[in-house]
Amino acid sequence: MLSSSLFAAIVVSLGTGQVVSQSCPSYSSYSQSRHEPYSTGAYALAYQRPAPGCRTFNSTGVEDAILRIKNQTHDPDLSRLFENTFPNTLDTAIKWRGVAANNSEEELAFIITGDIDAMWIRDSANQVAPYRSILKSKTDDIASVFRGTINLQARYLILSPYCNSFLPPPESGLKPGPNGATYSVKPSYDHNVVFTCNFELDDFGGFLQLSHDYYTQTGDVDFFGRFQWLQAVQSIVAAADAMRAPTYGPDGAWIPPVYSFQSQTMTSMGTLGNNGMNYPVNFTGMVRSPFRPSDDAAIYDFQIPANMLLARYLDATSAIVERLPNAPKGLAAQMRDMAGEIRAGIEHWGVVTTPGGQKIYAYEVDGFGGQNLMDDANIPSLLSAPRLGYLDANDTVYQNTRGWVLSRNNPWWCAGPVINAVGSPHIKPGAAWPMAAIMRAMTSDDDLEIINAIKEVVQSTDGFGLIHESVNSFDAGQWTRSWFGWGNAVFGQMIMEFAERKPHILQESFQPFFIAKY
Ligand SMILES: *[C@@H]1O[C@H](CO)[C@@H](O)[C@H](O)[C@H]1NC(C)=O
Ligand SMILES: *[C@@H]1O[C@H](CO)[C@@H](O)[C@H](O)[C@H]1NC(C)=O
Ligand SMILES: *[C@@H]1O[C@H](CO)[C@@H](O)[C@H](O)[C@H]1NC(C)=O
Ligand SMILES: *[C@@H]1O[C@H](CO)[C@@H](O)[C@H](O)[C@H]1NC(C)=O
Ligand SMILES: *[C@@H]1O[C@H](CO)[C@@H](O)[C@H](O)[C@H]1NC(C)=O
């Protein structure tokens, strides 16, 4: 996700389709000060939910869940952090909901990432995903948010599968501001539709994962045959296949890639070298991802976590395609074949040996032997591999990788008295991402590790009671982004899961100087 500073000047002005009154303060500014009443724990966390009239979606399921979890939670600061974060997407990010101009049954939801008025495919998928825990039927209020998000993502992925963030649909009446950046991108795209065009493979996985969540929770298979979902799946399968091409053909001749990107930027991570094509790749069966889930440029294009996510969900959603009478012949088999080829590529090229002699997953490889040993906080990450459904948490290579990622061996391991978590070159060394501490807890079965990770998240909000993008591991007062929708969503999801998986965790104290009883 982009840092807000880069695009702070680009705002989308409110049109007739707005869901909240113009008298409501923008959450961008609202989230920059602490609101009362403060929680009664040592961290005195602010109450950051907007006033009821200023919330962008009301869900009785979410309000019930908040009451239920608060009642189960012993620690007042943990309770407040959950109460602020779990509803954050619904409270603040549903900029517009409506239906398609040419089909009044096709719901659409424009979900902004937080402090930037554009819809990222990956962020929106991750912002909505936590509500899976309360989605039980296609008639639930929250089900319409899933359908609206999937339908609008499908439209974008048909129009510009190589792009990653998008402007409001014309139906919304929201007026997009000018997109000020100077880009040279192939293939070209419509500047009235696209906000930024970084090709990030996890967008495909995110779309399929959200689709799969909706399908498994509601069983509503008909939905997928009614609108543009099948066309979107064909669009991403074709784009993914094109992005598997190697740099050199069998005769040695250079094959120009289908996608290239150059932009004027202060940072080397914001553009691609080699005339916008990034470094050469060999054929591996995996799909290139010139940009990472942080929106930063990759070093080597075969990003292992994004390929893990895609392999899992191409396979999982082929079952939906199979059940649709109007599905193109052979599409489900093509998805399963591609998933198998990607998986074989990951296992052949992505498992590498560390200088210490351990077998772990690399973060990125090029198929020539080039390997980038690191992990990044943004999800999909190596740390999150079992959460992507790619492997079981007890997998030996994963356990090696996890230990390596959560150690000084990982160049982006950020340790200190405030928080110990993976960071990201998107910010800088020493800036730990609470999202990675949350993912550490979500991938652990060890109560002490879980409690310590949650404790570090609770003590790193600087009294705001919201999840920051990054926090200086030595100074909780230095952080980035007051409104980071994705981070809030993942925290809410984690607590909802512990309420089921390990309810005793919610009985713990997360106050300072607390010594865990385990
Ligand atoms: C949510 O409910 C409040 C009343 O509690 C109402 O004022 C507000 O308009 C509702 N928001 C939406 C988006 O329907
Ligand atoms: C709170 O939890 C207790 C049991 O733990 C239960 O009896 C009570 O009904 C709950 N209250 C609410 C509002 O959920
Ligand atoms: C409806 O409109 C969308 C975009 O506005 C377009 O992509 C789609 O093809 C249209 N569908 C039909 C059935 O005309
Ligand atoms: C490139 O990939 C091919 C298989 O597609 C493989 O035979 C060859 O050894 C690879 N090249 C290198 C340098 O690893
Ligand atoms: C790993 O966990 C799975 C279930 O989660 C189990 O079926 C399998 O036996 C476990 N393997 C090992 C080596 O413990």
From TrEMBL:
One GO BP: carbohydrate metabolic process
GO MF annotations, alphabetized: catalytic activity
Statement: the UniProt record of this protein carries the keyword Signal: yes
Alphabetical list of SUPFAM superfamilies matching this protein: Six-hairpin glycosidases (SSF48208)
Top-level taxonomy: Eukaryota, Fungi, Dikarya, Ascomycota, Pezizomycotina
Protein name: Uu.00g143070.m01.CDS01
Signal peptide limits: 1-21
Superkingdom assignment: Eukaryota
Keywords linked to the UniProt accession: Signal
InterPro entries: 6-hairpin_glycosidase_sf, 6hp_glycosidase-like_sf, GH125
